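step: validate -> pass
step: tokenize input -> pass
step: predict -> running
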Amino acid sequence: QVQLVESGGGLVQAGGSLRLSCAASGSIFSINAMGWYRQAPGKQRELVAAITGGDSTNYADSVKGRFTISRDNAKNTVYLQMNSLKPEDTAVYYCNCQLHRTAWSPRYDYWGQGTQVTVSS
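step: predict -> pass
step: emit ->
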């Protein structure tokens, strides 16, 4: 079994900051890409930021320059530092990991349970 546990969401005023964390645990051989997605009410889930095993990063245009994704491979943890938050950043944020459970198993996607981020104007 693999579990992804997220933390760090909450309510913040516009212009404020939050830091999300997502720790993967369980039967894990290796983790490839890790990322954060978000889903606002009535909208589709969208990619916010992703980081590869080689630390290459990719961001949605709407968060470039404000959000920073990073990872700690020793802790199987991915972070999302969110600065200069805007009301339109309000959404449920989901962590995603692409990992191998054993040396010979295929790569699978795993998701966290989601954490609410609310930005008030």
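step: describe -> The longest strand covers residues 30-39.
step: cleanup -> pass
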